[in-house]
Amino acid sequence: MQDKNVLNLQEVIYMKRKKLVKTADKHGIASKDTLKCSQELDKLIVEYQKYLAN
Question: Which portions of this protein are annotated as coiled-coil regions (predicted)?
Answer without folding.
Answer: none
